[in-house]
Amino acid sequence: MIGFGRRGTAAVVASAAVVAVAVLVAPAATAAAPVALAAPAQPADGADWAPAGEAAIRPGVMTETTGGGVCTSNFVFTSGDRTFLGQAAHCAGTGEATETNGCDSGTGPVGTPVAIRAADGTDRVGTLAYSSWVTMQELGETDPDVCQFNDFALVELEPADVAEVNPSLPFFGGPVGIDTDGVPAGEQVYSYGNSPLRLGIEQLSPKVGVSAGDAGSGFSHEVYTLSPGIPGDSGSGFLDADGEAVGVLSTLNLAPLPVSNGVSDLALALAYANAHGGLGDIELVNGTEAFTPLPVGVPDEQLASPAGPPLGG
């Protein structure tokens, strides 16, 4: 597995379970299956969020953690009167991109400054308020699935910036809640990656994919998207076919499912943060925009589900 974000590179682990490849090829596309639309979600606790089209801070804006790397933010969260952007814990990693086990990988501490590249072209300053990697190391976590797949962090926003936040995922809208029952093989997923390698071409950011099933006792989901997540997409939020938040883009997998992405389960990661993070009751904020699997302005060929290799083959 390869973790994205740190220093903008992706190295390769060679082991019995992981096979290195030199060239990444996008999977073939098939026709998109019909998906029911979900009802519009409401802001949390009556919060007065900025309009989606005008918000400077929203899911999908880039973050750059001091001493770590450049990543894509996923969703908006609150705890009491505090507001956070989600990112992957490995975005604060200080080791190599091949270090994906949060229980023994190098990482910056809680309190590390995080630059937020706002949608209006300005930079804001946030603070790393929670990291699953830091927390697991402090607790001495030993569960191998939790260590490998719990990849979630929260960047606290300055109070003065909260009025410029909208919690809706660009293009697709939502989230409309949190998925808690996994993502069965074949279910469609939706994401928005904002890697600088796309040179700011926003039409290349929306991604539609298909699940290849759960892994790590449900702590991870293996997904294929029409083009796989690339360095800088780390931390991107994924929605399921109902517009519920599934998880956080964590790794590029080279085997046994070549060029698939590993997505850390949000429900389990958030439960871990609430149990051990010391931030109180952290809640996902639903989007103000209705979820749609067919967003305006995205070419039809980008909305087709990719066909991965035969499951179990």
Report on this model:
The chain is built from three helices and 17 strands. The chain has one domain (2-7, 17-42, 56-307): Thrombin, subunit H, CATH 2.40.10. By secondary structure, the chain is mainly beta. It has helices at 132-139, 144-149, 266-276; strands at 2-3, 28-29, 62-65, 70-72, 76-79, 82-87, 113-117, 123-131, 153-156, 188-192, 206-215, 220-225, 237-239, 245-253, 260-265, 283-284, 306-307. The strands form three sheets. An eight-stranded antiparallel β-sheet has the order 4-3-7-8-9-6-5-16. A hairpin with a 4-residue loop joins strand 11 (206-215) and strand 12.
Summarize the structure.
By secondary structure, the protein is mainly β.
Question: Could you state the order of secondary-structure elements as H and E?
Answer: EEEEEEEEHHEEEEEEEHEE
Level of helix content?
Answer: under 10%
In the CATH hierarchy, the architecture is Beta Barrel
Largest sheet: 8 strands, antiparallel
Given this structure, which CATH class is correct? Answer: Mainly Beta
> Low-confidence parts lasting 5 or more residues at pLDDT below 50?
7-46, 309-313
**Relative strand content:** 25-35%
Mean of pLDDT: 81
Number of strands: 17
Structural class: mainly beta
Strand ordering within the main sheet? 4-3-7-8-9-6-5-16
Spatial gap, N to C terminus: 19 Å
CATH-derived topology: Thrombin, subunit H
SS field, number of helical segments:
3
In the residues, how many domains can be counted?
1
